[in-house]
Amino acid sequence: MGALLNILPLFPTFGQFSPGDLSRAHEALEGSQNCTQCHEVGKEISGKKCLACHDEIQSELNAKEGFHFRSMNQTCTACHKEHLGRTARTYSFEPKKFEHTSTGFTLAGKHLMIGCQDCHSPAHIRNAVVTRKSTQYPHDTYLGLSAACVSCHADPHKDKFGQDCSSCHTSVNWQVSNRFDHSRTSFALEGKHAEVACAKCHPGIDKQGAGKEITLAAKSFADCTPCHTSPHLFGVNEMTCSSCHAAQGWELALEKPFDHRQTRYRLVGKHQSVRCEQCHSAAGRTTFAQRFLLSFRKCTDCHTDKHHGEFVKRYNNDCALCHTESGYRPSTFTLVRHSQSRFALTGAHQALLCDECHLQKSDNVWKFHLSSLRCESCHEDVHKGQFAAEMNGASCEKCHSTDRWSTGSFDHSRTSFPLTGKHATAACSDCHKGPMSRMTGSRQFQKISGECESCHKDAHVQQFAVEGKTSCERCHQPDGWKSLLFNHETQSRFSLSGAHKKVACTACHHTEQGTAGAFVRFKPLEVSCAACHKGKDPR
Amino acid sequence: MKESSHSVFVIFLLFIGTLAVVSLSVRGWNYYLTPVDERPFRPDYSDMRPSGNFSHALGIFGSLMIIVGVATYSTRKRVRSLSNLGRLSGWLNFHIFLCLLGPILVVFHTTFKQGGIAAISLWTMLSVVGSGVVGRFLYVQIPRNRMGAELSADEINREIDRLAGILNANPIGVSLVRMIDGSMQSVEAPRSLFEMTRTLLVLERMKGTVRRRIHAMVKQSDLSRTVAHDLSNAAMSRASLLQKSVALTQVERVFYYWHIIHFPFSIIMFVTLAAHVAVTLALGYTWIF
User: What is the pTM (predicted TM-score) of this model?
Assistant: First the structure.
């Protein structure tokens, strides 16, 4: 009896090794013969057998996405519990407390404002295995969704921009595409382009609920002209707007120097170093044409005529006749060209700077067309009219050349004393010593006789004077004092013969001291032999 | 076992048991109060669940205590060569200690959740424990010698007479004998299990009264401490023997049947325990191993 009592209680529980009833979902696995359907012999539940049945979870793991993939470091039993009874929940899940980031999809923006079922609906399930298994679930599943935007949202761009909507849009508002990286397109937004509203180039993009395909206002954007009107009248040929302009603004400094050769006005010489603003100043110019399409035919379009119209009539004010872009100075008006004018520059005139003749010092005005070309219009008569009568209206050239004042062209042969020999090379003032003042710049010439003594001192101290008058020309000639005409044979009492021919003059004609100084005794001299030889045989 | 020693032992058991229950309860208070189907989602579930590190340890150590407690006592009791290995009562106390504390640990191991073969093991264990308490009560109702062997009826009578002789040697003792006999003889021997239970309860209550009277009478006398002590002990022993002999027949019969329950239940307990352990090991729940 006691044994029976002891055994009976076993019957209802015979084979009941389960620590508790399985949940309703696993009810079919109830029974001791099914333990190993989930449990692995010798080790705790690893989840391998769970996944053998729950292939929808396995598919997520294979795809490396989803909540379960990110929870792979845990076994199934970490979250899912069994043997708690038919109606017990096998997992702890509170939608409102669920950390959605653990699924790999962080809820942000408008995603935070919608209910779970708005996304987790059968229509959005993209996993075929989950779709198949979901029909077996007694409740809706949270599995099977994709993080791709297009899995829930329609793509109005028709896959033109790929499927990474977050590269342009945020979950706050579709209309705000402040994340769109325009550099991914063929046209990166730089400078002021980045400040332009999207709708300006892409019409309709800002309309609510448009969902339209993104279009461009212009048909192309290969260059700037589809959107910007070129104010340039000249053709740009091979150049594009970007050759000179940058997106930071039309007014901004160019990245590289503007090639002025593309215009009708090439920059040459100093024009190349001029800043753009110096010619193309914005002051008083409001339009592009006013500022950049300048007149340039005449230099005076930009430059002030410093000649005050002096060359208008004669040269049509063509600055290029005398000047280049390399600078006003030096002028290109050469001596050759000056020689073609009314006054050819010769002699010292050639060495003068232009302003010495053409700049009026009184008012600092250039005057090139001189009213008088006479010497006295520039030079003062230093002779103070001494030769006015002789000049008889002629200019200074009668006596002087433009080389220098001292080289005159006076024909002395017209006077009673033709200049020969060294007389011809002597300066006028050497003979005609007259009043000369450096202070007043005057130079006057004293009239002199043609006598030698009127200019030269008698070096022979009247030795050869006849009636008080020495005729130097008897021995000397204008070629030089030592160019003697003296013939010792005919003009002296002593014939030089024999060895006397070889004797130097100074051997017989000694220097003596006179009252006026030293002189050479030429005469009278003793002609006897003893007078020189003094009883000695010179041989 | 002397009354005083027994009392001390009982107090000790109570203390240890209470300490275990209180400490384990405090440890897992929140967990045990959580509904079973909510427990898996608690942060301490992995530790507190029956197969968790903590609770699994309780089950293992509790089971080991039960096994040792049963094995030692049963072996000592049944193997003749070990009959001189300490008093049986002492081994019984050891058995009682381990088999009270062990089940407490096992109960906490279950986390008060039951199901399957483990539940069978639990309830058989609790039945064994309960029957053990009853058996302990019945055990002490049977007079035994120092070694714990049951005394026969003749031995009981001889002992009663011997104690009467000691008591009658003293006038106070005579009064004590008269008082004891008068009290015990007023209780009739039970004829059924129900009457036995009632009688034992009456006698137990009466024993307390007798004890108080003995102490009062001895105290009132001018006996020396030693004599008073001896007289008291003799009086109490005689009262105890008389008390036990009143329902001895029924007690022995019940105690005989008690063995049929206690022992088989323990067998079932061990069998189901073994099955439970085998299944858990097979399913990989190996604690720290």
Answer: 0.53
Rounded to 5°, the CA angle A98-A104-A106 comes to 60
Identity at A335, one-letter amino acid code = L
Pick among B36, B37, B256 to test the A interface (most A CBs inside 10 A):
B37
Contact between residue A267 and residue A324 where contact means Cβ atoms under 8 Å apart: no
CA–CA dist B130, A457 (Å, integer): 179
What are A180's two structure tokens? 């769109």
- Tell me which residue of A525, A538, A531, A530 sits closest to A493, measured CA to CA: A525
Query: Comparing C-alpha atoms, which of A88, A87, A90 is closest to residue A78?
Result: A90
Q: Output the DSSP codes for A125-153.
A: ---HHHHHHHTT-SS--S-S--SSGGGTS
Reported ipTM exceeds the 0.90 cut? no
Cis before A330 (ω within 30): yes
Chain B residue numbers touching A31 (CB-CB < 8 A)? none
Q: Does A450 touch chain B (CB under 8 A)?
A: no
Per-residue three-class SS string for A229-242: CCCCCCCCCCCCHH
Q: Hey, is the C-beta of A81 within 8 angstroms of any chain B C-beta? A: yes
Nearest-CA distance A187 → chain B (Å): 56
Peptide bond into B40 cis (omega under 30): no
Closest residue on chain A to B261 (Cα): A2
A159 touches chain B (CB under 8 A): no
Q: Phi then psi for B167, rounded to 5 degrees?
A: -70, -40
Residue A42 touches partner B, C-beta closer than 8 Å: yes
Is residue B38 a contact partner of residue B48, using CB atoms and an 8 Å limit? no
Shortest Cα distance, chain B CAs vs residue A156, angstroms: 45
pLDDT tens for chain A, residues 1 to 539: 334 344 444 444 433 577 888 888 888 888 888 888 888 888 888 888 999 999 889 988 888 888 888 887 788 888 888 888 888 888 878 888 888 998 888 898 889 898 888 888 888 888 888 888 877 776 678 888 888 888 888 887 777 777 777 777 788 877 656 666 778 777 888 888 888 887 777 776 666 454 556 666 556 777 777 778 777 655 545 556 776 677 777 765 555 667 788 788 888 899 988 888 888 888 888 777 788 888 888 888 888 888 888 888 888 888 888 889 998 888 888 888 888 888 888 888 888 888 888 888 888 888 888 888 888 888 888 878 877 777 777 778 777 888 877 666 667 787 788 888 888 888 777 777 766 655 566 777 777 778 888 888 888 888 888 888 888 888 888 888 888 888 888 888 888 888 888 888 888 888 999 888 899 998 888 888 887 787 665 55
State how far the Cα of A465 lies from the Cα of B171, in Å rounded to an integer: 218
Residues of B in Cβ contact (< 8 Å) with A85 = 36-37
CB count within 10 Å of CB A367 equals 14
Separation between Cα atoms, residue A412 and residue A399, nearest integer Å: 10
CA distance readout (Å), A103 to A67, A69, A93, A139, A281:
4, 8, 13, 20, 64
**A299 and chain B in contact, CB less than 8 A:** no
Q: Domain limits of chain A?
A: 24-146, 458-533
Could you tell me which chain B residue has the CA closest to the CA of A35?
A: B283
